[in-house]
Input
Amino acid sequence: MAIPEAQLETWSHQGPTPQFTSTYDAIRTVLWDANSPYAARSFNVFLQGSYKNDTNVYGDSDVDIVICTDSVYYADTSNFSPEDKQRYQAGWGRAEYQLSDFKNDVVRWLTQKYPNAVTPGNKAVFIKGNAGRRDADVVIAAEFRRYYTFPATGQPSYETGICFFTSNGTEIQNFPKQHSDSCTSKNQSSPWFKRTVRTYKNLRNKMIADGLIADSLAPSYFIEGLLYNVPIDRFGGSYSANFNDTLNWLVQADRSQFTCANGLFYLCHPTSPVTWRAENCSAFLNACVNKRDNW
Output
């Protein structure tokens, strides 16, 4: 028995946003406060994740916020020629204000403004919600640059992202703007794209609730990246046709060549801290097929 059309349509709908909006506005105001210990530093505050990309569903709770300083930046220079690397290193100097300093200042400020509600975690600072505010994760990051060239004349070429470190010191590189822009562009090509992401996220939540898959098997970021690789002509029709066509294509595709939605990392990699494990991707798709076929 297939998943009913009405169920798939319901799953495609966006979850509620008003409390999310008020949560983001309130925390953003705190982060931008001129009295904060880092106020004189150059930084920006922005959203990432499901709410940013309009793929939030009813099961989503946390608001993902980034505060990123460009007072210091980290770089990937592995694409440089020897000459480019020499020119880059000749002008490089250690910044006086490090990401660790910025993080300490932000955590201290958030703890002051939200007493007994702030918990630093492995990747983000968790702010516990209350009756009028959702839970939130605040990622404290620095600018990241993936360099391609560093010529003797003219401007260097690079992609700009963010960088932060886990509690055990692992460097995490991310490109949230490129991810969001790519998802928006895909949805402009086919308005079914974000509906389909929400459908798969709701199906994942259903399978978690039924005890069929682990909660950590298929993070939302990777579901967005997975469906980003589906050709436009596989989207559309009825909700059942859309789901079956995208799922069948994904199961049969060579997923080793899939990229994240940002286009700067492969979607699946055996060791990278910012990519999905291929076996988890396969397990998720197999679970989707089994749930569809045994609804």
DSSP finds ten helices and seven strands in the chain.
